[in-house]
């Protein structure tokens, strides 16, 4: 959270999303409702104090990252620090390049060392753009926090930053809602251009300007998104491309939506809500969570998932940027429940209520029966295949054949066991796919040094190339893209069955495991049903003896 609380131990390394299957139609909605309720309660609790999470309190909660007209001035200009994709900062403080310069080899680069190296470069650049005659006394001018990146970009005319910001209707690059009457983003951009054209109007430079701008460069959502999209297009040197900057701006607006939700604001602000500006707490959170690494990985898998093969900056900026934005802005769903209490003419009172769900969601054609959201199942799937919420997706087995949920999930929960091994294989096959989450964990853990490079290219290309070079002679082309578990501690597809002690499901699970082994052995053989029945009658030892004879070898 905003106070630097972290997961204990190595829990964050083992973390993966959960895909829950149930044969009962009502279970996904219950799971989504209750898990979301508890997650929201805990996040609000992190805020401390007497914060309430009632519908009335949520209506009163105002977004903290917003631009607002207050007479002749624009409030909230500091939010521009998170929303402006700066090519200069993207080049000066690329964490991947800096970590490579430090020479960490196979060990994680200390964030302090990376920040110190970035601060040295950014400090020299900022000193070069401070106008002569800038006051050295008096109160610090807080406008420097958002003006410094703009001045750094304006100094290099080749970047075209002033032209990029001066386009008609430029606020719509971030989001269509940015042009609405209740948004002052357009006015904020106009003010930013005025200050950029005449920096002599700025007052004394804050003493912490370099450290703050360094954090913006290392972890600002817009700048991180710009680097990630540029890597997806071939190299980080493409950060000045206007199409990629448009995509990064859209992604940053999605992060603004995420960080403006009441539960996230409460969690990041913590009990000492007034000590630091919220936008700086957001920067700290992004830095502690290494947002750049998160978006680099996301851009890599997303480009392949969407089938974008050409390194086309316009396509990558538009499609990757829009998909990331959609994932970040997935709407909460209100699931209806009936509050039943004794009383009334029939002996009970039934009061309909709603439970808001976002941490966990139900997936399926019926997943959004309210507010005209029937079409949102595709967005829910895209959000689940992202590093952002929902972190739990509950569904029935019906209609999920062929859909993949593997990008950030390698754990399947069987609320009810399926009737046959084919359905079990179908369920777990949803998360056992090309470059799945478990595969990427193992590739990164075993080939970490290969991800560092000073060119600013996609680190995951280097990681998978190293894993491919290191595979054994007997390994086929499935390694390392479909199968890769080099050690006993390697991540694997996780299977969870919440069965009660002495229940029938314990025995049924063992039967399914045995049947699944037989099914895999018979797969692709003629007259599979007869062969499966024959193998099922054999003892385990005898099946092992005939396995080599029955196996079909398709290797070249």
Biggest sheet details: 5 strands, parallel
Physical arrangement of strands within the biggest beta sheet: 6-7-1-8-9
Integer count of domains: 3
Mean pLDDT: 86
- The percent range for helix content is 40-55%
Structural class: alpha/beta
Give the termini separation.
52 Å
Descriptive report:
- The protein contains 24 helices and nine strands.
- It is an alpha/beta fold and 556 residues long.
- It folds into three domains: 11-60 and 331-430, Rossmann fold (3-Layer(aba) Sandwich), CATH 3.40.50; 68-329, no CATH class; 501-550.
- The chain has a five-stranded parallel β-sheet with strand order 6-7-1-8-9, covered by helices on one side. A two-stranded antiparallel ribbon has the order 2-3.
- The longest helix is centred in the N-terminal third of the chain and has 20 residues, at 27-46.
- The two termini are 52 Å apart.
- Residues 1-9 and 366-375 have low confidence and may be disordered.
Question: Would you spell out the secondary-structure blueprint of this structure?
Answer:
Layout: H1 11-14, E1 17-22, H2 27-46, H3 55-60, E2 68-70, E3 73-75, H4 80-83, H5 87-92, H6 95-102, H7 111-129, H8 144-155, H9 161-166, H10 185-197, H11 209-219, H12 221-232, H13 242-259, H14 262-269, H15 278-288, H16 291-305, H17 313-328, E4 333-342, E5 348-357, E6 360-362, H18 377-384, E7 392-396, E8 409-414, H19 421-429, H20 437-446, H21 459-469, E9 494-496, H22 504-522, H23 528-537, H24 540-550
